[in-house]
TrEMBL record:
Gene from which the chain derives: Mars_0
Protein name per the record: Methionine--tRNA ligase, cytoplasmic
Key words, A-Z: Aminoacyl-tRNA synthetase, ATP-binding, Ligase, Nucleotide-binding, Protein biosynthesis
InterPro entries: aa-tRNA-synth_I_CS, Met-tRNA_ligase_1, Met-tRNA_synth, Methionyl/Leucyl_tRNA_Synth, MetRS_core, MetRS_Zn, Rossmann-like_a/b/a_fold
One of the protein's GO biological processes: methionyl-tRNA aminoacylation
Family according to the record: Belongs to the class-I aminoacyl-tRNA synthetase family.
One Gene Ontology molecular-function label: ATP binding
UniProt keyword annotation of Protein biosynthesis present: yes
Catalytic activity, as annotated: tRNA(Met) + L-methionine + ATP = L-methionyl-tRNA(Met) + AMP + diphosphate
Domain Methionyl/Leucyl tRNA synthetase: 34-311
Cellular component terms (Gene Ontology): aminoacyl-tRNA synthetase multienzyme complex; cytosol
Native source species: Turnix velox (Little buttonquail)
A Pfam family this chain is assigned to: tRNA-synt_1g
Length: 313
């Protein structure tokens, strides 16, 4: 308090000059470098005030604070554009998935500009950089022995001649009997669902009754990483600033034992899987989307690794 009173008495003239970083903003030796991201908003809707508050406003406030402190700050965000939600919206509006992304990315960009959200760069995930970085991470996982193949029983619509991703199938929840449960979870009871468990399933595109067929998919072999992850978590919990809720959820996953997680989908709209036997599939959006933070930064600057692979700064 004494220091604040003293600074106020001396006036603005003695304050340090504002830091105006050159463009693009890159880490600077000897400065405090801060990289800020907002959760990537999904592209298939028009953002409303709740989205602004829940998604970008807190990060924007923190970015402004960091700049006032003369910290070298980069704040990036962008629209999350791959996955079944985009395909579903495209069907609803009679457009292609790319047209849906172009339309709603422009709407998002205009709204955040109107709210004066102080992004250094607002991008999107449907870019060549996203494909390059995601496929590179995939190949490194493959070469490291962290992927496995398995056969999955999946609902297939013979009328549409396609396997039905989670959002393209609807039916009765096996837990609470809600009649409009999706193929990934029930919006009434909140439980996660395997689509083949749905009672009275139907294809949301043509309303035909799907059949169960086997299909090959790739899985991230999470049990192989469990021991190394536990060690890292203990160090991170000791040094980091985790919320109680984040600690609880993470501990429960570790306690119950990690399971292999499917990272591919029988869809057209997504980052292609660069492996023979799987080239007609794309990456599951939850494998692909977090990589968007890296690729959006890569669209901002070709020196993106100085932000993402530079723990010393």
């Amino acid at each position: 308090i004494t220091a604040a009173v003293g600074a106020w008495a001396r006036g603005a003239a003695v304050l340090p000059k504002p830091w105006n970083p050159p463009k693009p903003v890159l880490p600077v030796e000897g400065m405090r470098n801060v990289l800020i991201t907002s959760a990537l908003p999904y592209v298939n809707n028009v953002p409303h005030l709740g989205n602004i508050i829940g998604c970008v406003l807190s990060a924007d406030t923190f970015a402004r604070y960091c700049r006032l402190r003369n910290w070298n700050t980069l704040y990036v965000c962008g629209t999350d554009e791959y996955g079944t939600a985009t395909e579903t919206k495209a069907v609803e509006e009679g457009l292609t998935p790319q047209e849906i992304c172009d339309k709603y990315n422009a709407i998002h960009t205009d709204i955040y500009r109107w709210f004066d959200i102080s992004f250094d760069y607002f991008g999107r995930t449907t870019t060549p950089q996203q494909t390059t970085i995601a496929q590179n991470i995939f190949r490194r996982l493959l070469d490291g022995g962290f992927l496995l193949q398995d056969t999955v029983e999946q609902l297939c619509c013979e009328k549409c001649q396609r396997f039905l991703a989670d959002r393209f199938v609807e039916g009765t929840c096996p837990f609470c009997s809600y009649q409009e449960a999706r193929g990934d979870q029930c919006d009434k009871c909140g439980k996660l669902i395997n689509a083949v468990e749905l009672k009275n399933p139907h294809c949301k595109l043509c309303w035909d009754v799907p059949v169960v067929k086997p299909t090959q998919h790739l899985f991230l072999d999470l049990p192989k990483l469990e021991e190394r992850l536990e060690t890292w978590l203990e160090q991170s919990w000791a040094k980091g600033d985790w919320t109680a809720n984040a600690r609880y959820i993470t501990r429960s996953w570790i306690r119950d034992g990690l399971k292999p997680r499917c990272i591919t989908r029988d869809l057209k709209w997504g980052t292609p899987v660069p492996l023979d036997g799987f080239r007609d599939k794309v990456f599951y959006v939850w494998f692909d989307a977090p990589i968007g933070y890296l690729s959006i930064t890569a669209n901002y600057t070709d020196q993106w690794e100085r932000w993402w692979k530079n723990p010393q700064q």
